[in-house]
Amino acid sequence: MSRPAKPTAKPARPHFSSGPCAKRPGWTTAALDGVLSGRSHRSIEGRARLKLAIDKTRAILDVPDGYEIAILPGSDTGAFEIAMWNLLGPRGVDVFAWEVFGRIWMRDAVEELRLQDLRTFDATWGVLPDIGQADFTRDVLFTWNGTTTGVRVPDANWIPDDRAGLTFCDATSALFAQYIDLTKIDVLTYSWQKALGSEAAHGMAIFSARALERLETHRPAWPVPKLFRLTNAGGVLRDVFEGVTINTPSMLCLEDYLDSLAWVEKIGGLPETIGRADRNAKIVYDWIARTPWVEVLAADAATRSNTSVCMRFADPEIVAQGEAAVLDVTTAMTAVLAEEGAAFDLASYRGVTPGFRIWTGTTVEEQDLRDLTPWLEWAYGEVKARASA
Predict the structure, then answer these.
(1) Domains and CATH numbers, the chain
(2) For the sheet containing 202-207, what is the strand order?
(3) Using one digit for the tens of pLDDT, what is the confidence trace for 85-140?
(4) In the chain, where do the E strands start and end?
């Protein structure tokens, strides 16, 4: 293979991190000019801004009647943990994992909550476990889109409407970029930092009427820390669904989320945000298909993510040297690309198969991805040349 020439065009926004993700196109700090700074989030104005975020979320996502939305601490991690700690216990639990965060929820179910009636279904990087084994008389936990492996469930058709248990879905790298039938989900969590590129620190949880009923009637057998607590002696903290938060929120982060939601409305809502991610991902997948030294980590095309495109090396010369050598090449390429200002934060998540993951979500521009791929080819040639020098 001939060594590629160094490209001349660079991505205008070389931000391909899978979290925090690229800001929306055209974003500047002027987007925060309307922030309610120096004021209490408990003030009339503060609560109104928080409620506005909930109301806009409901409208854009077309959240079904009877569902409620809460702004919670700790990003998506906090939101999902809060759901687990408050709602699990009355039924047996099935946990499905095929990426890092799914395995975190699995570990917490085993080691922290120590659930007695628990089944776990794990898979190696790049494939889904057999979701057909899910028993919906039980509670079922899963991640919709694996940010760390680029593997997603293709749809929600495997979830029955007449389920007896609750479905818990970590959708942080899917929502706003993939269609999710919310009627199939009882607890859905996400953070502002993923598909919308907003600032982190806060998580969102969308609860179905059935999940809310569980919250009303169930008291966990374990202590629930204040930061996780959705109930008190008087019952469910209903005002949490009206913009009252468990702890003090960042009004700067809130304003940034509102700005992102306004951008979504401006460009055409969910159809366009999903379309942008689909078009972005196609650029990278098409490049992988014609590039002999990489391959997609997700084995089944039907399960390939349109937001987090994960790839591994396919060059036999490098792969034969073992995982440590592959990691060295990945690290060197990542450093070269960052030094050139052509791409930042491309390396695979720690502990996953060494390679690259490129965020192709809604806030990334197609042209930046088109400009990125020649730099990947150049960096690969550059690192190989240095190694053989």
Answers:
(1) 29-266 (3.40.640.10), 269-388 (3.90.1150.10)
(2) 68-73, 202-207, 187-191, 167-170, 139-143, 93-97, 118-122
(3) 999 999 999 999 999 999 999 999 999 999 999 999 999 999 999 999 999 999 99
(4) 68-73, 93-97, 118-122, 139-143, 145-146, 151-152, 167-170, 187-191, 202-207, 231-232, 235-236, 294-296, 308-313, 355-359
pLDDT value, residue 204: 97
- Please name the amino acid found at residue 259: D
Distance (Å, rounded) from C-alpha 273 to C-alpha 285? 19
Tokens of 320: 């034969």
What's the pLDDT tens digit per position in 293-348? 999 999 999 999 999 999 999 999 999 999 999 999 999 999 999 999 999 999 99
* Per-residue pLDDT tens over the stretch 202-246: 999 999 999 999 999 999 999 999 999 999 887 899 999 999 999
Q: At which residue do the structure tokens 């990542």 appear?
A: 334
Exposure on the CB side of residue 193, measured as CA atoms within 13 A: 17
d(CA 243, CA 232): 17
Output phi, psi for 108, to 5 deg.
Answer: -65, -35
Indicate the DSSP class of residue 125: T
What is the residue-wise DSSP string for 266-282?
Answer: HHTSHHHHHHHHHHHHH
